[in-house]
Amino acid sequence: MTNTSTTAALTNAKTRGGLTHPTVGIFNLFKHAERLFVDYADWNTVYWDTIDGVLDTYTLTFPCSEHREEVIAQLLHYYVSMRMRQHSQHVNGALKKQSQEKKKLAKLCSS
Question: Where is this region: Disordered (predicted)?
């Protein structure tokens, strides 16, 4: 079964049956979550602020009302956790690089 929407064209072209793609509504949910994550990325409460912001400001029409809350909660948890991990790796990598450069400069300056 293939999806013919333009948002799924690349996935359908490259998939061998293992890749899946979200519906437009879920994709827009992630876009909204990403915007909020970027706003709160350097805060200590980034996880809760992002999740609360999405739940307060975004209305998602989900096909199955019985599983709506559970699925959206799992998706948001996974997405925000993944982004926090990526952000911390990026920040830690930049700090490590900065520390290495300071050590090099310290070696050059000491006599």
Answer: 90-111
